[in-house]
Amino acid sequence: MPHDLTELARVGGVLEEAHSLLESERERLQQQYGPRPYGDATAGSPMQTLHGVTYLLSAVSESLKWVALAAGYSALGLEDRAVHALRRARMEPVGFPSSADRMARPLGAGTVRALELVRDVGFFDGDIAVAIDVALAAPQATYPPADWSAYVEERQHRARLEED
């Protein structure tokens, strides 16, 4: 078996801990704001904060699913499936940590700890650690932007810098 089941178990345990922390945060925020806060859709509003933690939770859940599948397929000797699942598991989770950009500051302790766990696990492809550090350092929520034109322009500018 080419996959290190001990490593997959370690990563799975970290993701499960992050998932539990984010689930607790979602429950706390639902109690604080109500289960479906509507109205103000600005960055950092109760609606956006609850959306943000829900999206973070979903991203961690999806990553955990692929880690579990990779481990399971590997243990069963289904190597082609294990390789595919491991490739998917290593992909940067969609919306993680960018969903934190929606959330009011200061972020809850559980959210911060979950972000730190994912940052420190050292498993995912890409610059997820840098993105998490940026999300943790942000003094305020930034999404959705007040000025969409400036937001699009800034994203295009960053894309051009990354190409160079």
Describe this structure in words.
- The structure is a single chain.
- This protein is an all-alpha fold and 164 residues long.
- 66% of the residues lie in helices and 0% in strands.
- It is built from six helices and no strands.
- The chain has helices at 5-33, 46-75, 79-90, 109-120, 128-137, 148-163.
- Helix 1 runs antiparallel to helix 2 (46-75) and helix 2 runs antiparallel to helix 3 (79-90).
- The longest helix has 30 residues, at 46-75.
- It starts with a helix and ends with a helix.
- Please tally the β strands and state the result: 0
The share of residues in helices is: 55-70%
- Identify low-pLDDT runs: none
Structural class: mainly alpha
Q: So what's the overall shape? A: globular
Q: Helices and strands, in N-to-C order?
A: HHHHHH
Task: Reconstruct the topology from this structure.
Elements (H helix, E strand, L loop, with lengths): L4 H29 L12 H30 L3 H12 L18 H12 L7 H10 L10 H16 L1
Helix pairs in contact: 1-2, 1-4, 2-3, 4-5
Descriptive key words:
single chain; 164 residues; mainly alpha; globular
Short description:
It contains six helices and no strands. By secondary structure, the protein is mainly alpha-helical.
